[in-house]
């Protein structure tokens, strides 16, 4: 075949002429580069290969990372992991060999991607997210993704979503908004974890975390500033009251002062002289947590602009139909088992005494009756986490029974981007709030940041304003118009709070960039955080 025949067969002469004309119209100073890019855009993107590997999450536990290749580039994603029971959620596939990573290795999931999922997706258009996700669901053939593993499927789903955004030459959040069907682009209110308790910390605080929500901020930059300042004032308060050891942090960056021990010593002294009811001790420890957070907020001067949230995770200390607020105490009194009615009264009292805007999982995941009764009081947002597990059937039941009024969405509990979008639609149609959440085993993948913006979630829960794998979620809001390949990553999560201070400075630099880029188009959920 002659050169001319080759040009004619592929219509290259016309395509090259079109590219040259475009370069002339653009008055480009680098015509070769311009023409090259112009020709590249003329070719549709297709998936050419999917390659997975095992990496470690923020807790040192194996998880899945994926590189998805198209004829136009490589797109990476990694997935988090959590401690949920998998009773109602999609299943993380792990090897189970106790001799390797204590049974937590994910080489089976990696193999499924490299050998099965890759073959099924090669040749597909990365912009058709629903078809890509459905192809993997059909390949798995199980309700909870037990065959391929939800960790395998989700990692590929997120990587494909990034490839689709790149093909359309739009930011990731805009591509997800197209999938969602609405152009919301609303920056959510961050629910910063400031005190960690429950089973994820070594202190005696029974509830899992105490959070602050800067609902009174005018923009995300201001909200992040409020969160950071409050966090560091809280460090000072804790140091004064409990000593420097109280400033150790939990898995998601919240401080872990041993509040209960200090309260216990004080209360025992009072008990000796005034014979108080010792059954009030666990409640006093929770109140002490609220008190020191409120003191930190007071030192910032943001009193009316910051609300308090509490993640109870009551399933962790529910025994039968009772709630053991001393479940972490080695010396249980045996008198601190609360009934569901007792818990409702406790929450009512707390909401009366503190600016509590949100309570997450106030009851056991099967205690529908007390969840419904408490939600009907309308005291605050009632978020379903363990109650729902991002499961469409559980969400539908909760909507029908009014068991809660907000969804805590953990994307890895459902397993694909498309299915996550659908459950958000369910919640929004019911006029619920939506909070997009991290997991305790995190990576530096910031996908949930773009997702929360795209679906107009109004809230995001990504831990404390420290630690690289938490900060990257917040960082992404500051650079929404940049592709993730250029995103700053923390390379050392273990250096603690001093390192976090340096990372916070980088956050503000990136905040200024996003403010300049979005200008008047930047919208912060603020007081409309539940809409």
Automatic annotation (TrEMBL):
Q: Which InterPro entries match?
A: Enolase (IPR000941), Enolase-like_C_sf (IPR036849), Enolase-like_N (IPR029017), Enolase_C (IPR020810), Enolase_CS (IPR020809), Enolase_N (IPR020811)
Q: What class of enzyme is it?
A: lyase
This entry's Enzyme Commission designation comes to 4.2.1.11
Q: Which Pfam families match?
A: Enolase_C, Enolase_N
- Keyword Lyase found: yes
- Please state the pathway this protein functions in, per its UniProt record: Carbohydrate degradation; glycolysis; pyruvate from D-glyceraldehyde 3-phosphate: step 4/5
Residues in domain Enolase C-terminal TIM barrel? 184-531
The Enolase N-terminal domain, residue ranges:
47-176
Q: Which SMART domains match?
A: Enolase_C (SM01192), Enolase_N (SM01193)
Q: Which cofactors is this protein said to need?
A: Mg(2+)
Q: Is-annotated flag, keyword Cell membrane?
A: no
* SUPFAM superfamilies listed in its UniProt record: Enolase C-terminal domain-like, Enolase N-terminal domain-like
User: What keywords is this UniProt entry annotated with?
Assistant: Glycolysis, Lyase, Magnesium
Q: Give the family per the record.
A: Belongs to the enolase family.
Q: What's the protein called, per UniProt?
A: phosphopyruvate hydratase
Which source organism? Hibiscus sabdariffa
């Amino acid at each position: 075949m002659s050169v001319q025949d080759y040009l004619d067969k592929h219509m290259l002469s016309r395509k090259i002429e079109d590219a040259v004309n475009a370069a002339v119209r653009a008055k480009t100073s680098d015509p070769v580069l311009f023409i090259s890019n112009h020709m590249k855009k003329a070719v549709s993107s297709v998936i050419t290969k999917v390659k997975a590997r095992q990496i470690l999450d923020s807790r040192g536990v194996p998880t899945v990372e994926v590189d998805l290749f198209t004829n136009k580039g490589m797109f990476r994603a990694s997935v988090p992991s959590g401690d949920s029971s998998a009773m109602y959620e999609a299943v993380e596939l792990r090897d189970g060999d106790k001799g390797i990573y204590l049974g937590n290795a994910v080489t089976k999931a990696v193999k499924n991607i490299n050998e099965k999922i890759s073959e099924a997706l090669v040749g597909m258009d990365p912009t058709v997210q629903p078809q890509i996700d459905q192809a993997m669901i059909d390949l798995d053939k199980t309700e909870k993704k037990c065959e391929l593993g939800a960790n395998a499927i989700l990692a590929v789903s997120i990587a494909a979503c990034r490839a689709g955004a790149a093909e359309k030459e739009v930011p990731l959040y805009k591509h997800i908004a197209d999938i969602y069907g609405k152009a919301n682009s609303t920056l959510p209110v961050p629910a910063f974890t400031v005190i960690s308790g429950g089973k994820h910390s070594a202190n005696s605080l029974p509830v899992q975390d105490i959070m602050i929500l800067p609902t009174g901020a005018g923009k995300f930059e201001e909200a992040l500033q409020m969160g950071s300042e409050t966090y560091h004032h809280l460090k000072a308060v804790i140091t004064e009251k409990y000593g420097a050891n109280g400033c150790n942090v939990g898995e998601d960056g919240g401080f872990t002062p041993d509040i209960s021990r200090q309260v216990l010593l004080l209360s025992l002294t009072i008990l000796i002289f005034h014979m108080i009811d010792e059954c009030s001790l666990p409640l006093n420890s929770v109140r002490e947590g609220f008190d020191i957070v409120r003191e930190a907020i007071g030192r910032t001067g943001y009193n009316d602009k910051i609300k308090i949230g509490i993640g109870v995770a009551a399933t962790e200390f529910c025994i039968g139909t009772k709630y053991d607020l001393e479940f972490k105490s080695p010396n249980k009194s045996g008198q601190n088992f609360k009934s569901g009615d007792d818990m409702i009264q406790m929450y009512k009292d707390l909401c009366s005494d503190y600016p509590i805007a949100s309570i997450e999982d106030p009851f056991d995941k099967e205690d529908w009756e007390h969840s419904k009764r408490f939600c009907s009081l309308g005291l605050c947002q009632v978020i379903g986490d363990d109650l729902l597990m991002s499961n469409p059937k559980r969400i539908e039941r909760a909507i029908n029974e009014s068991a809660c009024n907000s969804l805590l969405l953990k994307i890895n509990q459902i397993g694909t981007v498309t299915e996550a979008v659908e459950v958000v639609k369910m919640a929004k149609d019911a006029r619920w709030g939506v909070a997009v959440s991290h997991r305790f085993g995190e990576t530096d993948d910031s996908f949930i940041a773009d997702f929360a913006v795209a679906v107009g979630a109004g809230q995001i829960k990504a831990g404390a304003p420290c630690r690289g794998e938490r900060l990257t979620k917040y960082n992404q809001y500051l650079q929404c118009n940049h592709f993730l390949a250029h995103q700053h990553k923390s390379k050392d999560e273990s250096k603690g709070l001093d390192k976090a201070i340096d990372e916070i400075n980088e956050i503000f630099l990136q905040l200024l960039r996003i403010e300049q880029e979005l200008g008047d188009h930047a919208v912060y959920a603020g007081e409309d955080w539940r809409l």
